[in-house]
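Risk register update: the risk of archive-format incompatibility is retired. Evidence:
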Amino acid sequence: MECPTEFKTRIDFTLPKGYLDEETGILHRRGVMRLATAADEILPLRDPRVQQNEAYLPIIILARVIVRLGDLQTVDTRVIEKLFASDFEFLQRLYETLNRADDDEADQADNGIGALERASNAARRLRTVGEA
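Archived output:
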């Protein structure tokens, strides 16, 4: 009997620069991101901030899937908004890597379009349908 391949639902990461907590002065660099669910990509499309500005979508999605960042009690959109741009980009790339389908599935499913880009495209379509 074959031993199943380990299925990772979480990944540890270390931010290149780190999130500086303005209240405590503590720099938080280590965190954990979980695998996204369909709801993580669909529900933020209803958020008024995304409907006004689709560039806000990755902020909401990352706030949903980052389960720990240093000693912070919670990781919410305010935390993600205050990340340095290089850390924000790092987390977007990590999200894409963690949530990418297997190579064969990815070729068939999205022809190279990442999960955040698919969600952004869906937000555009949603807004277009709403404007009709």
